[in-house]
Design brief:
Oligomer: homotetramer
Distance between the termini of chain A: 38 Å
Strand content of chain A: under 5%
CATH architecture of the largest domain in chain A: Orthogonal Bundle
Largest interface: A-B, 39 and 39 residues
Number of strands of chain A: 0
CATH superfamily of the largest domain in chain A: Tetracycline Repressor, domain 2
Radius of gyration of chain A: 20 Å
Shape of chain A: elongated
Helix content of chain A: 55-70%
Structural class of chain A: mainly alpha
Amino acid sequence: MATGDTAPRPSSALTRKGAATRARLIQAAQCVFSERGFLQSKITDITAAAGTANGTFYTYFDSKEQVLMAIADEVVGRFLGTLREGRSTSGDPAEVISHDNHQYVVAYRAHADIMRVIEQAATFNNEMAVLRRSIRERFVERAARSIRTWQAEGLCSADLTPRIVAALLVAMVDNFAYNWLSLGQPHPEDEVVHAMNEIWIRALRIPKEARTHPAQL
Amino acid sequence: MATGDTAPRPSSALTRKGAATRARLIQAAQCVFSERGFLQSKITDITAAAGTANGTFYTYFDSKEQVLMAIADEVVGRFLGTLREGRSTSGDPAEVISHDNHQYVVAYRAHADIMRVIEQAATFNNEMAVLRRSIRERFVERAARSIRTWQAEGLCSADLTPRIVAALLVAMVDNFAYNWLSLGQPHPEDEVVHAMNEIWIRALRIPKEARTHPAQL
Amino acid sequence: MATGDTAPRPSSALTRKGAATRARLIQAAQCVFSERGFLQSKITDITAAAGTANGTFYTYFDSKEQVLMAIADEVVGRFLGTLREGRSTSGDPAEVISHDNHQYVVAYRAHADIMRVIEQAATFNNEMAVLRRSIRERFVERAARSIRTWQAEGLCSADLTPRIVAALLVAMVDNFAYNWLSLGQPHPEDEVVHAMNEIWIRALRIPKEARTHPAQL
Amino acid sequence: MATGDTAPRPSSALTRKGAATRARLIQAAQCVFSERGFLQSKITDITAAAGTANGTFYTYFDSKEQVLMAIADEVVGRFLGTLREGRSTSGDPAEVISHDNHQYVVAYRAHADIMRVIEQAATFNNEMAVLRRSIRERFVERAARSIRTWQAEGLCSADLTPRIVAALLVAMVDNFAYNWLSLGQPHPEDEVVHAMNEIWIRALRIPKEARTHPAQL
DNA sequence: AATGAATGAGTCTTCATTCAT
DNA sequence: AATGAATGAAGACTCATTCAT
């Protein structure tokens, strides 16, 4: 799951105390980053928030970038975890879409602050850009796979390239979530999720009636 | 058009020479920003590229942010101009959508580099965030207006809130363009634009046959 | 003459004022280094001594090492200049030796403080080690050349390899000067220089009587 | 022999285990110092090499300087020991000189790496400078004593001050050895040692024939 | 207007040394 | 004795911005 090297600096395993301090620093960094953004955060802000001395930061991380990678890796893991947990078991495409979009919004909301930080860091840090891209790629991949299956089974229109529709629809969901949840643009949740679902369903021409049964598209 | 205060520092009008120097600085800044991003660019990079002395920068701009605002304003103006020029005169929704999406892609591609810079600056500079939001807002507004009209005329489905579908579809187009054209993810243009159009058309349930004539949606 | 790259950071030529500031910084660095050694000197010590702001240092130099290189290059130049100026015109080996040793001591004394600094820096900085070695190498080379000539002309013993005797005798003079003049070990100048000369003369078996005339060695 | 305070920190005697740990640390420090020099060596490099925890270092030493003093004391002891062991019993000055020079080279070669470290530390640490000076002083003293004896016995020229010739000749041997063996400048051993001996012998005008018997100098 | 030197606040980063366990 | 986490003083370096000419 992890993309960056999040291993602690000391090569030996951490003691219980060390692990606790490291965790405190990560926690503090997450707070500080969320509050003022990555760029505006100083190492001393983090150590102050963690209640450690300045230099302690460097016992566990090489740089601000590295601690963000550690956080991001963890967040991505939790994010994906949230999605997996709530995986729809139904084979009904409309239900799958509705379910996934809802889960996506729920998961995003839980990490909206740190996603904003990752988004910022991705604009100037290559490692972070790679991570950011990989998150999205994962969703595109998954959506494309579903679409390919549905097309094969005649459950949806087959006239659009799966990879491309998937990329477009994921861009929509992901970026809308960013503007809405990370940047705080107000939108009514119910309507938004409904519209999202409908756009997916219509784009893929998933038939309304008896969606688990093939229809003439 | 302008969002930030882009007036030159001296309140008096610029001499011809002064205007030329200012233009050279803007030009240079745009190059430098495009190449290494806003954060990585130093004032001296800009003045070196413009062939002026270090301090000359401050004869025309108050800060690095301000020169970016000047550039961004100009770019936004050209961006919107490009779209307006190519405005579809047809009333056929499908044609309008197809036309607008194509124009959008063309316009975005022309400013992809600087859009990446604006995107970066928007993550930490409020003025830039406001500008960035305003660009998108303009498109959402316009799309929502079209949709509202089409709905009123029975040219498209009326079951989704215009503002929300518009926001979602614009998020899709805008963010996909960013990833594709600003960040360089490869995609086949024809297919992408086709899929984009189809998603809009299907999302809005614009009937294929006789699109200028109302149909039962 | 110069070994390191002592060009000022700004690629353009310095203005009169800039050159003055740079000179002041070099002057100050030389004082500070001489007083407390290279390692114990902080950049702020130098700028304080030069009466400039902290950052001004970096307008002219990249690092403490670089300013030392600039100083060292200059010192080496002056050092070699001093020796050249006072070059013995006589062909008499004893006279040449006596003259050169005297000049060497005079030149060394003039730069004893900075030589101590160079000696220190050469123990951990490779560039400086190279410079330090190159100074000595120059003297060894010169001495070896003289010896070779004298041997060919029968003016001195030919049973020792010129390069090796030269290296040994230069090590003696150079290192004794370091201990005496740089580290401050007290020695009576007259006696020391006399003994130095005698050791060279005897080592090379230069005949006392009629030294410009070949003798049976 | 010891110059610095090399007593272990706890005043009580060391346990067997403690002594072993201390020895391991000294051994490790010597390796690390030799490899990267005193300044570039971190305490953690030493403890890592010794296979102990960071803090253990301070159970046995007060500082990085102190462990070097301990090493230097030991090295100086071994150095002098090597020389003493191989002491020439002959009274023949030429033989004594040749023997001593050879022994000196052998002894120096055995400690060339750590001598380089001591040389470095002596440039900024007073204790180390004192130690370094004391080593040389010992040799100068010894050489001066021999010379004085030989002069008194008519075995060598009496026109140069023993202390001064000794200081010069020791500077030659010592510094040449440093450049050759510590800094790695290549030289052919046989020729070098031969030339060294000859310089001493000629400088002191030790007669070739029947050197144990007084001659007219 | 233009120049380019001067400024100095702001941060990062290192690592010898201490300390609680 | 040993451990290894914690400390924090110390100093380097950057670069947007100001200023004297």
